[in-house]
């Protein structure tokens, strides 16, 4: 990877990761408090609302923000046109979702769905207010400021949610947190950003961006729909309590996984776009991004799976213990999803978008088969089916990406395999520690975390892992710049 680009990516990823880690820790603390105060069936209601909101948010953006990031020099009218489109669609979808919420409540036999909908679905217009400001921050590589904004919004909304839960507001505290997080973020972005929608609205700009944008939207919409299919079907086939267990396992798994991948993708997509026409630089950048992403996430996801029993025993009430086996299995998705997403970013950078849509159709046909076979059986069957699909998605994305890079597939495998082996060794060490360590669950949890970190980094240093050496050199460089 070119040194200047590597430095910018390193700084961007460092700030994004710092924010995501900080945000994830805040969200974890807030979630632990809320889980101890709420019932599993309460979170089942939120899972249904969030499923519909997630799909609607994809339509609100419609892929235009990614097109603006990818473009060489978008006009001021392009940003204004996308902003107006986002806001108009968000208000339209808000009205439709609120109007349909009584029917959804009857369908799932969850009366609270209709009551919460007018508040919860405010996430749509709130998110629309953030899209263009965030896009401009990303284009300018202003990740430090963007990270601080997101972290501040997480802390503020989390504090309000905890206060509401302690005051007895129950499930309303969860809905308020979702909305306030985006409203606080929007307020800060508009205060700190210099963009204002002063340019004229240009319908032609939307038409020019539409071919690529709508292909991305189709891909993301299919992905969002299928990501929420388990919640939608499990909510109707099983008790709300069971849906609550499943949904919280997914959310706890996603805290490190989605947080880290969002940080990486927000930086890597614009960075790879800069070298998209330089085949050697693009190939090496792709390899290093995949390697560093695996180096960061493989041990985290396997470690979370390993410590799950003591994590729940030490920090959560016994009513949430049925979630443990779900979380242990769900974390294995983290061994495949990161690599799949790095390859997906390469496809977004180099392809015209058509291949992405075709691949999504193939993958979703596979996922449909997985759901058809697993949903009627059990929740655990669904989770193992998702692990299998994550592996298949990784394989499909990697094979498709080979058409757009000069990086040999064998070299990519040789790059990732050492990281996977060291992460597996760490997992065994943590499990062994849990089996032999006496004392209470909190003491065991702390020991497991210490042993896992020590084993992983000691092995990485002993075998002179390339990812470890690059991470160490980047860290030294950033520390030296910080002391100047």
Beta-strand content bin: under 5%
The low-confidence parts are: none
Got a strand count? 0
Helix content: over 70%
* SS class: mainly alpha
Mean pLDDT: 83
Total helices: the number is 18
Task: Report the C-alpha radius of gyration, rounded.
Answer: 22 Å
Biggest sheet, in brief? none
H/E element order: HHHHHHHHHHHHHHHHHH
Number of domains: 2
Q: Any idea what the shape is? A: globular
Distance between the termini: 25 Å
Detailed description of the structure:
The protein is built from 18 helices and no strands. The relative contact order is 0.11. The longest helix is centred in the middle third of the chain and has 37 residues, at 279-315. The chain has helices at residues 3-37, 40-61, 64-70, 76-108, 112-120, 123-139, 143-166, 171-192, 203-237, 240-274, 279-315, 323-330, 337-350, 354-374, 379-401, 409-436, 441-462, 466-483. The mean pLDDT is 83. The chain is mainly α and 484 residues long. Helices cover 85% and strands 0% of the residues. The radius of gyration is 22 Å and the shape is globular. It folds into 2 domains: 1-14 and 22-227, no CATH class; 275-484, no CATH class.
List keywords for this structure.
484 residues, globular, 0% strand, mainly alpha, 18 helices
What's this model, at a glance?
Helix content is 85%, strand content 0%. The protein has 484 residues and is mainly α. The protein folds into 2 domains: 1-14 and 22-227, no CATH class; 275-484, no CATH class.
């Amino acid at each position: 990877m070119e040194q200047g680009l590597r430095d910018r990516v390193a700084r961007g990823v460092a700030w994004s990761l710092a924010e995501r880690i900080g945000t994830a820790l805040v969200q974890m603390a807030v979630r632990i408090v809320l889980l101890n105060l709420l019932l599993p069936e309460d979170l089942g209601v939120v899972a249904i609302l969030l499923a519909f909101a997630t799909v609607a948010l994809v339509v609100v953006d419609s892929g235009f923000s990614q097109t603006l990031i990818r473009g060489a020099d978008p006009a001021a009218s392009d940003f204004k046109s996308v902003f107006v489109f986002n806001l108009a669609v968000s208000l339209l979808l808000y009205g439709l979702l609120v109007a349909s919420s009584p029917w959804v409540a009857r369908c799932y036999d969850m009366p609270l769905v209709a009551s919460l909908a007018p508040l919860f679905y405010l996430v749509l217009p709130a998110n629309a207010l953030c899209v263009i400001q965030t896009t401009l921050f990303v284009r300018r590589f202003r990740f430090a400021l963007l990270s601080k904004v997101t972290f501040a919004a997480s802390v503020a909304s989390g504090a309000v949610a905890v206060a509401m839960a302690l005051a007895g507001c129950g499930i309303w505290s969860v809905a308020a947190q979702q909305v306030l997080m985006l409203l606080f973020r929007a307020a800060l972005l508009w205060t700190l950003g210099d963009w204002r929608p002063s340019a004229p609205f240009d319908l032609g700009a939307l038409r020019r961006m539409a071919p690529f944008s709508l292909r991305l939207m189709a891909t993301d919409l299919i992905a969002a729909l299928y990501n929420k299919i388990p919640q939608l079907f499990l909510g109707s086939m099983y008790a709300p309590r069971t849906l609550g267990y499943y949904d919280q396992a997914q959310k706890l798994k996603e805290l490190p996984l989605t947080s880290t991948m969002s940080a990486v993708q927000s930086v890597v997509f614009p960075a790879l776009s800069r070298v998209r026409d330089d085949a050697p630089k693009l190939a090496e950048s792709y390899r290093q991004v995949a390697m560093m992403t695996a180096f960061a996430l493989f041990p985290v996801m396997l470690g979370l799976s390993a410590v799950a029993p003591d994590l729940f025993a030490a920090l959560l009430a016994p009513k949430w213990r049925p979630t443990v086996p779900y979380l242990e299995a769900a974390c294995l998705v983290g061994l495949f999803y990161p690599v799949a997403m790095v390859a997906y970013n390469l496809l977004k950078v180099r392809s015209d978008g058509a291949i992405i849509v075709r691949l999504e159709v193939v993958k979703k046909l596979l996922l449909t088969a997985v759901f058809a076979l697993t949903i009627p059986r059990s929740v655990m069957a669904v989770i193992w089916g998702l692990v299998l699909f994550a592996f298949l998605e990784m394989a499909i994305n990697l094979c498709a990406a080979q058409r757009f890079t000069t990086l040999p597939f064998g070299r990519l495998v040789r790059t990732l395999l050492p990281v996977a082996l060291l992460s597996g060794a760490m997992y065994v060490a943590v499990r062994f520690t849990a089996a032999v360590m006496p004392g209470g669950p909190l003491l065991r949890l702390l020991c497991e975390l210490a042993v896992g970190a020590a084993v992983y980094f000691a092995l990485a240093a002993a075998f002179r892992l390339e990812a470890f050496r690059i991470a160490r050199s980047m860290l030294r460089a950033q520390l030296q710049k910080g002391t100047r």
